[in-house]
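TA notes. Do not distribute before section.
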Amino acid sequence: MPIFDLHAACNPVLLVPGSELSPTPLNPTNYNLLAAGGASVLTGASGHVMLQVPQFQYSYSFSGTSHKYQVSLLPFAGSQIFPAFIKSGVIVPYRYIGIYPASWYDVSAAAYVDGDGVLSGWDNATDKIGSIVGKKPASNLTRAKFRGAAARVGAGWSIMDFWLYALAKMLYITKYGDFDSQTVLGQGNSRFSAWSFATDISATGKVLTINAIGQSTSGGNTGDYVNLLGIEDIFGGLYEFIDGWNINSGANYICSTPANFADDTTTNYSAYGSGNPAASGWQATLQQNVAMLPATVGGTGNSSVDICDYYWYTSGWVAPCVGGYAADGSYVGLFYLHAYSASSNAGGNIGARLCF
């Protein structure tokens, strides 16, 4: 359990590139309203819809078969700043996670437009991504193209990076204390019997409150979603690329400087962890580190004994994706790791999430 209720200090805001030091707070129980009163604009005209997470302290320990995670807004014995708040070598007071999966801003049209699983009109020199309400998310771009689209939003913007992904897992585990995120948060958009972007994916904006209850149906419905502290589709719907994280035959390399993010390299990256399993399977145990990476597979997917999410492995360099997608069923979850796709890969079922 958390030492201090960090989770209550996470708040939805509108964040305008270039004015990141003065976000506009949203009403956490109704994103259609500003915290100060009056209607909000969530379509991009007033900024990106983001979850503001304040800098926090953490501790991690392992004993026997148990992992212990603690967080607090204030320092405590044995604590240190969570690594997500050391960005480009500078300690920052807040990090921001896109509340919605990344949408496509078409510069030539001067408007956000629906993703279609193809993005045939994408301009890799000018187009951007955003976190907004009302458009189907962007997909079918390589991680490098998503990286460039986020960088064009403004200095310091990126898609979700390794430590922000770890932060999301830390917020979840210290709030719920259960690795079975599909039981805790709901199955989400994961139950379609076959993959089709047109059939399986709907417009963003299903989550409009910190405390919205996730919707999940047994047969698949485009209205299905999960909600983690106000973040929509943290798993399910589309896979999401994670940046600042390269994997080579199970070995993890990480970087905390967005300007240095690159594919298939260890330059400006540091080795991390004890190595991921060299075979695919249900995750059984985790590495002894705060990032909650898989250590072994061979589990059953059973909530009482395992991590409950699937892990995909292939040898060589890969660009990791997380979360699972709309036809992945019980494989998906917050701890799902798809370490299988080359950095050159782009798919209609792979998207991203804007962060700062």
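Switch to the second chain here.
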Amino acid sequence: MRYRKLGSSDLVVSEISLGSWLTYSGGVAADQTRACTEAAFDAGITFFDTANVYGRGAAEEAWGEILATHPRDSYVLATKVWGPMSDDPADHGLSAPQIAKQIDASLRRLRTDHVDLYQAHRFDVDTPIEEIVEALQQVVQDGKARYLGFSEWTAEQIRAAIDIAGPDLFVSSQPQYSMLWQAPEAELLELCQANGISQIVWSPLAQGVLTGKYRPGEPYPADSRAASESMSGAMGLVLNDATVAAVERLRPIAEGAGLTLTELALAWVLRRDEVASAIVGASRPEQVYANAKASGIELTPDVLAAVDAALGDAPVRGPRLASFAPEGVRHRA
């Protein structure tokens, strides 16, 4: 496992990190959660990413129990705030009271007195940016988080926050980024790099599409997410006839390079210096080990050129969709 510095912070994170979005929030049994987490440590993974909204606290509680058996300085822990935590429509967002309430609740579930990275899960267009920035800074000032980050913010929103608090406010950005979703390259990566902000990318395997589990002309596997989920969310952005055909063209490229499709996909996002870590999910320990093998793989120019040719027009390369990054910034009157 190789490690990279996270933005302007003194945090060093593993190139492959373990996430808990669709797995440890209730989709995976407790014994599997523990087995995958222990496999991550065994593989050299030291960066663990979760969120309060994953299972409405379930993922944090699961890791709070498991990580408590490891020295606190042996891993980097990140969580997030923004999503709805109850049926009360007011119980979400980035208002000062909400952030203050949710960080304390997250720390209780995680059984720790601080997280290393606290991230705004999305932008809150209903709360003044000044209030958001001040509330996040207060979390750090209170010693409850060491550093701050954000996920799926637009360039306008990032600049607005930096204009208020300076480039040291954030050390990380968490966008969706993969061979099939290249939108962050349009503007986000350059803007963040100029301000000392690293990328922690989610869905680097494009919701599993880049593992090759979906084949042209064949029904979706019964145990796959596509067979059971609506195509209106993140899955629908990267799974279609064009992307499945593109992945099929990637198979011989991976084989020729002596790699699995998973290794090729993860090494592709890690080819960018702006990317500090790629977040992967796993429901079985063997998946953790397979993902970890991608760390340190350096793709040759010939392989990268072949990948570009194989992908063709399948990837999304333009600005991110509003559904993932609510547009606009509200200021105090």
